[in-house]
Amino acid sequence: MNAFTIKDLENLSGIKAHTIRIWEQRYHFLKPQRTGTNIRYYSNDELKTVLNIALLNKYGYKISHIDKMPPDEIRTRILTLGDAQAIQERIVNELVQEMVDMEIERFEKVLAGYISSKGIERTVTQILFPFLEKIGILWVTGHINPAQEHLVTNIIRQKLIVGIETCVSHLVKERTVLLFLPEGEHHELGLLFMYYMLKNRGIKTIYLGANVPVKDVAYVVGLKKPDLVFTHLTATSSNFHLDKFLNQVHTHFGSTSTVVSGQLTQTYSKPVPAGITFKKSLSEVMEYLTSL
Fold first, then answer.
1. CATH assignment of 171-291?
2. What SS3 string covers 82-151?
3. Distance between CA atoms of 24 and 16, rounded to whole angstroms?
4. Of 170, 277, 266, 174, nearest in space to 231 by CA
5. Long-range CB pairs of 197-200, under 8 A, 24+ apart, other chains included
6. With the C-alpha atoms ordered 261, 264, 266, 271, is the resulting torsion angle positive or negative?
7. What confidence tens digit (pLDDT) does each residue in 244-282 have?
8. Other CB atoms within 10 A of residue 210 CB
9. pLDDT single digits (tens) 201-225
10. Where are the domains of the chain?
11. What is the pTM of this model?
12. What's the gap between Cα 37 and its chain centre?
């Protein structure tokens, strides 16, 4: 069983911690345990309860009414939510719940069902990015087991690879993009999604993968002369220095333009070397793709 803090519940549900405390005082659906130092912690079941109640509350149900519903009715009400955004949020919550319970077959079934219905691109933008954004904080704080991270990311990785392999584009663009992750960066999902998006748009792609030294990338850049180099920084190793990396890219890639996206770009405030562009959000990346 995982032990979640009230801050974890806030990050995963979108409900402020002080509101969760009020719910505990007024209603019956949350009964956290406490550590020896009197700090609240919550079980898997309580996390799932908060996710379900937060979703119903967001789409029109009063907390006082939800509190009186038995669990089966809560699940039924959630399934009847017809708003497109509500459906997406329900599926994201299901993925979170299956992950914390280590119900990997159900996790894969939920994901495969959405891919079958909406396709890879919509699944990634509507489901997987919100899911990864929600649980990313748990990976950083260590509030989920590394085995859970490996299991779910490998399933997502497999789905993306299948999407890439089966993708057939009727577009042909005279552009080549090289994709890589620097040394110390092993989180490949964002890069694989970019691979799919480029292939789907008829753009030739050179995929070097994760944990590649800049000098090795520079060798391929010199040999293949891509129009663009792209990398996505999610959670690099502790000895990774973004300043040093950007200077290496500037030095070794010559006049080849480089785009850097991912979490680390969002907090970087120094001037970016010439030839390098930051894309700080999924929407910025998607908008950039349309210009290629």
1. 3.40.50.280
2. CCHHHHHHHHHHHHHHHHHCCCHHHHHHHHHHHHHHHCHHHHHHHHHHHHHHHHHHHHHHCCCCHHHHHH
3. 13
4. 277
5. 197/121, 197/286, 197/289, 198/289, 198/292, 199/164, 199/167, 199/169, 200/121, 200/167, 200/169
6. negative
7. 999 999 999 989 999 999 878 888 888 999 999 999 887
8. 15
9. 999 999 999 999 999 999 999 999 9
10. 1-81, 82-166, 171-291
11. 0.79
12. 33
Q: State residue 241's pLDDT score.
A: 87
CATH topology of domain 1-81: Multidrug-efflux Transporter Regulator; Chain: A; Domain 2 (1.10.1660)
CATH number of this structure's domain 82-166, picked from the four choices 3.20.20.100, 3.40.50.720, 3.40.190.10, 1.10.1240.10 = 1.10.1240.10
Domains 1-81 and 171-291 share a fold: no
Alpha-carbon distance of 177 to 203, in angstroms, equals 7
Residue with tokens 């079941």: 45
The two three-digit tokens of residue 246, written as one number: 């950007």
- pLDDT for res 85: 93
pLDDT tens, position by position, 98-152: 988 889 999 999 999 999 999 998 998 899 888 887 776 666 666 677 788 788 8
Please report where in the chains the tokens 């017809």 appear, as a residue: 82
